[in-house]
Amino acid sequence: MSIERFNENPILTPASVKATADHLEVAAVINPAAVQVGGDTILLVRVCERAREQDDEHLSSVIFDSAEQRVKIVKAPKDHPELVEVSANSYRYKGRTLLTSMSHLRVARSSDGTHFRFDAKPAIFPSNPYEAFGCEEARITFLDGWYYITYAAVSDRGVVTALARTNDFEQFHKLGILLPPNQRDAYLFPRKVRGMFVCRERPARSELNMPCVWTAYSPDLFSWGRYHMTLSPRGDMWDESFVGGGAPPVRIEQGWLEVYNGVDRHGKCSLGVIISELEYPEQVLWRSPHPLLGPAEPCENHGLRPGSVFCNGMVAREGGKLSLYYGAGGSTVATATTSAEELISLARASEPATAGK
Fold first, then answer.
1. Cα 293 off chain centre by
2. Which of 104, 182, 287, 321 could bridge to 204 as Cys pair (CB 3.0-4.6 Å)?
3. Measured between alpha carbons, how far is 201 from 281 in angstroms, rounded to an integer?
């Protein structure tokens, strides 16, 4: 087996954490960033909260009002003629897209890598207009003595990539916007390449392009350029509709080893593997022809997004072992164990000439 799921999955559920207010409830805990700090495994989990009180006549949204510095519940009448495009997660009301939940990022800690407890308070919570709809999908990179956290800040201004950092996972410092709308799945590399910081990112789908992974360079973490399209969907394959960055890379002898997220034509989200060139990471050397992990277990096929496994956290262990932490079914967190050797073997099963874009 190239990967082994933990036999007690899911490891975190909505019942694992208390909501931030009595009028809210936790709808999902998903898509954790992950890092090892001393003897503890640290997850930075996306916690989705929605209005506790629901009624048959309205749709409710949770929004952070930065002017008043408080969370508000907004309701839209279900019979209103300007209520359109209703889905499980969002709707349009009077020309404005609203989400049915608001997310924050919260630390969960474990001494064994499988049994976690949430901190009592959020680590990163909405605090400004760019975060009015929430803070989502963190990635953690240890770089120059700090743990840098990239995350999606969501609002009616679009989805921007924000940056924060910590050195103890007790105090968190927001540093501002890293990338403009509409960017998701951004993360930093753990060292400079040719004297520059490196990040992966995924611009939003448009009428011309499918979701693809791009690579960019920066001298200072905030001025990004030298963009290269690095990874795109492959026709008639398991990742033909969407690709997005997963966890920050691990350096190996052959280059940079990464797990990424891919979606097929039926909406099933699975994990794949790439190896990119060490000094030119925009160049993919090998790319897995088959998924590393796809939705198979009950927790992966039931929830707010059934049929999905989504990874943005990977921890390197002793002996080349790797722990993957992933969102399961859009509602819970699960984990699985593999090795760098297994991922390299899976990626190198492809033909090098066709492994990249």
1. 16
2. 182
3. 13
User: Which residues fall within 8 angstroms of residue 12, CB to CB, at 6 or more apart?
Assistant: 29, 32, 43, 45, 108, 116, 118, 332, 333
CA distances from 343 to 117, 258, 291 (A): 29, 9, 10
Residues 286/350, Cβ–Cβ less than 8 Å: yes
Count of beta carbons in the 10 Å neighbourhood of residue 225: 9
Q: What is the C-alpha to C-alpha distance for residues 69 and 84, in angstroms, rounded to an integer?
A: 29
CA distance 203 to 213: 8
How far lies 62's CA from each of 32, 167, 243, in Å? 21, 31, 29
Which pLDDT tens digit goes with each residue over 222-256? Answer: 999 999 999 999 999 999 999 999 999 999 999 99
Q: 183 with 203: CB under 8 angstroms?
A: yes
For residues 279 and 301, the answer to whether their CB atoms sit within 8 Å is no
Question: pLDDT digits over 186-213, tens only?
Answer: 999 999 999 999 999 999 888 888 899 9
Distance between CA atoms of residues 29 and 33, nearest Å: 12
Residue 208's CB: how many other CB atoms inside 10 A?
Answer: 5
**Inter-residue contact 202 to 245 (CB < 8 Å):** yes
What distance in Å separates the CA atoms of residue 5 and residue 8, rounded to the nearest whole number?
9
Q: In 3D, which of 238, 128, 230 has the Cα closest to residue 186?
A: 230
Distances (CA, A) of 351 to 198, 283, 347, 356: 26, 14, 9, 10
The residue count of the chain comes to 357
How far, in Å, CA of 235 to CA of 258, rounded?
A: 21
Handedness of CA 271, 274, 278, 282 (dihedral sign): negative
Q: Look up residue 45 and give its two tokens.
A: 């989990």
**Model confidence, pTM:** 0.96
Which CATH superfamily does the domain covering 4-354 fall into?
Answer: Glycosyl hydrolase domain; family 43 (2.115.10.20)
